[in-house]
C-alpha cells in the first residue's frame, strides 16, 4: 500500500512537536506506567470505579501473563534498510484505515469521566482511529455514533442478549447508526470472578449505569411499558447514594434504575451460553462483517473459518474473565501455527486481529509480526480518559501510533503491512 504524505508526516510531526516542546503531554508523561499511576491518583476518591475498570479476574494472574508474553518475545531489528518514508495505513474488510490500531470495546466509561464514551468516540475520530463500541456503554448507540461523527469509522460489539427480538433491535440500530462491522464477544456470557468488585459489591449495571444501550432500546423498554430514553449518566458514579435512595427513601427513579439494570444484565450477561450453531441467527440478521472476539484456541479459530465468519479477535478480555489463563500473545502464537488459519488469512477469507496486553507501539509491532492485521488497545486509553477526557485519549492514540511508526522503521520495515506474519525474522522468544 502506498503511503499518503499527509498521514506519513502526521505521526512524525507529532514526534517533532514533542521534542520541540510545542505539545507538552496533557497526561504529564508519555510513559505508560507513569500515566497508569496518575490515573489511579486522579481516581483515588473513587477507587472502586478505578478497580472495576482496570482490575482483573481472581489473582490477576492472566493480566500478568499477558504482559509476560510480550516481554518474552523480543524484537530483532534489521539494519541498512531504506525506511525514510514509512506507511502505517492498512485495509480491513475493504475499508482503509490510517493505522492498524483499534479502540477496544470498554464498557461503563462514564464511571471514569463525565463525558464517558462520547470523549473516546470523539478522540478516535480526531485521530483517525476506528472505534469499537461496547454493548455495556454508558451512552446510547446513537449518541456515540453522533459523537464519532460522519467521518468516524466504527464497529459495534455485541454482548448477545437472551431474546431474539432485542438482539435484532440492537443489530438494526447499530447498522442504522453507521457501525460497519459486528464484534461478538464470546467470553462474557456471564461476568468473571473479580474479587475487587465482589468485596465492594460494585456492579454499575445494578444501579442503571452501563445499561444505556438497553434504556435507549425501544423493544427492551416496551417490555416494561416505558419509552426509550437517551440519557447522560451522572459523574461521579455513587452507587451507595442510588441504593439508599431506592431502598430507604423510596425514590421511584432510583428504584426504576435498579430494576432495569438487573433486567438488562439478565439479558446480556445472564449465564445463558450460546453455541456455534447459534451464529447462523446473527448471520441471518447482520449485513456486514462479523468478528468473533475471545478466541484463544486454534481449534476455535478453525471452527470460525468453517462457519464462514469474516474475522476473529484473539483476546482473553485483558485477563478480566478467567484467572490462571494463558497469555493472549502466547495463545496467538499457537493459533498462527495452524495451517488452516494461515491459509484462510492468505486467501482473504479470515481477518485476524489481536487484543489483550497492548501498551506500546512495540507491542503492536510484535502482535503484527505474530500475524495480526489489526490490534486493539484498551487500558492505556482508559487511563487517558480518566485523567484528561478526550485530550487524554487522543494523546494515547497518537503516541501509540507514532511509537509504532518510528519503531517500525528502526526495525527495518517501511510498510506496516509487511510486518504481518514476520515472526520468524522479526521476533525471538526468550525465557522469562
Structure description:
The active site is at residue 317. Glyoxylate binds at residues 52, 159, 194, 317, 320. One of its GO terms (molecular function) is oxidoreductase activity. Keywords: Flavoprotein, FMN, Oxidoreductase. With 432 residues, this protein is α/β, with parallel strands linked by helices. 46% of the residues lie in helices and 10% in strands. It contains 19 helices and 12 strands. The strands form 3 sheets. It has an 8-stranded parallel beta sheet. A hairpin with a 2-residue loop joins strand 2 and strand 3 (95-97). Helix 1 (5-19) crosses helix 18 and helix 17 (361-370) crosses helix 18 (379-410). The protein starts with a helix and ends with a strand.
**Beta fraction of the residues?**
5-15%
Rough outline: globular
Low-pLDDT regions: 1-5
Helical content stands at: 40-55%
Strand order of the largest sheet: 4-11-10-9-8-7-6-5
- The beta-strand count equals 12
**Number of separate helices:** 19
Measured between the Cα atoms of the first and last residue, the distance is: 37 Å
Q: Mean pLDDT across all residues, rounded?
A: 95
Provide the gyration radius in Å: 21 Å
Biggest β-sheet description: 8 strands, parallel
Query: Helix- and strand-based class?
Result: alpha/beta
Report the oligomer. Answer: single chain
Amino acid at each position: 500500500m502506498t503511503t499518503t504524505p499527509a498521514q506519513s508526516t502526521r505521526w512524525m510531526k507529532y514526534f517533532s512537536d514533542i521534542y520541540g516542546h510545542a505539545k507538552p503531554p496533557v497526561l504529564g508523561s508519555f510513559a505508560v506506567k507513569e500515566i497508569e499511576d496518575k490515573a489511579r491518583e486522579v481516581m483515588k476518591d473513587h477507587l472502586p470505579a478505578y478497580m472495576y475498570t482496570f482490575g482483573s479476574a481472581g489473582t490477576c494472574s492472566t493480566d500478568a501473563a499477558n504482559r509476560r508474553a510480550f516481554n518474552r518475545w523480543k524484537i530483532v531489528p534489521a539494519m541498512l534498510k531504506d525506511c525514510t518514508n514509512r506507511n502505517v495505513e492498512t485495509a480491513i474488510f475493504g475499508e482503509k484505515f490510517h493505522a492498524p490500531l483499534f479502540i477496544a470495546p470498554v464498557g461503563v466509561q462514564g464511571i471514569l469521566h463525565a463525558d464517558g464514551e462520547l470523549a473516546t468516540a470523539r478522540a478516535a475520530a480526531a485521530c483517525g482511529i476506528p472505534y469499537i463500541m461496547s454493548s455495556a456503554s454508558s451512552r446510547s448507540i446513537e449518541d456515540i455514533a453522533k459523537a464519532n461523527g460522519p467521518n468516524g469509522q466504527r464497529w459495534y460489539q455485541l454482548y448477545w442478549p437472551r431474546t431474539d427480538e432485542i438482539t435484532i433491535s440492537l443489530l438494526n440500530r447499530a447498522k442504522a447508526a453507521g457501525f460497519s462491522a459486528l464484534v461478538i464477544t464470546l467470553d462474557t456470557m456471564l461476568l468473571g470472578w473479580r474479587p475487587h468488585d465482589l468485596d465492594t459489591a460494585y456492579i454499575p449495571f445494578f444501579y442503571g449505569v452501563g445499561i444505556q444501550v438497553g434504556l435507549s432500546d425501544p423493544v427492551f423498554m416496551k417490555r416494561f411499558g416505558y419509552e426509550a430514553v437517551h440519557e447522560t449518566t451522572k459523574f461521579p458514579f455513587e452507587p451507595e447514594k442510588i441504593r439508599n435512595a431506592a431502598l430507604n427513601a423510596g425514590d421511584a427513579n432510583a428504584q426504576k434504575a435498579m430494576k432495569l439494570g438487573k433486567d438488562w444484565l439478565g439479558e446480556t450477561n445472564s449465564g445463558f451460553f450460546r453455541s456455534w450453531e447459534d451464529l447462523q441467527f446473527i448471520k441471518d440478521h447482520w449485513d456486514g462483517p462479523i468478528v468473533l472476539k475471545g478466541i484463544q484456541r486454534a481449534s476455535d479459530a478453525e471452527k470460525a473459518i468453517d462457519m464462514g465468519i469474516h474475522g476473529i479477535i484473539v483476546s482473553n478480555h485483558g485477563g478480566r474473565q478467567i484467572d490462571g489463563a494463558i497469555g493472549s500473545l502466547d495463545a496467538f502464537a499457537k493459533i498462527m501455527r495452524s495451517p488452516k488459519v494461515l491459509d484462510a488469512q492468505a486467501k482473504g477469507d479470515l481477518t485476524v486481529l489481536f487484543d489483550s496486553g497492548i501498551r506500546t507501539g512495540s507491542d503492536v509491532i510484535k502482535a503484527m509480526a505474530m500475524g495480526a492485521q489489526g490490534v486493539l488497545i484498551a487500558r492505556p486509553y482508559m487511563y487517558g480518559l480518566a485523567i484528561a477526557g478526550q485530550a487524554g485519549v487522543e494523546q494515547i492514540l497518537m503516541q501509540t501510533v507514532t511509537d509504532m511508526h518510528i519503531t517500525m522503521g528502526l526495525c527495518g520495515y517501511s510498510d506496516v503491512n509487511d510486518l504481518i506474519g514476520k515472526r520468524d525474522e522479526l521476533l525471538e522468544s526468550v525465557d522469562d
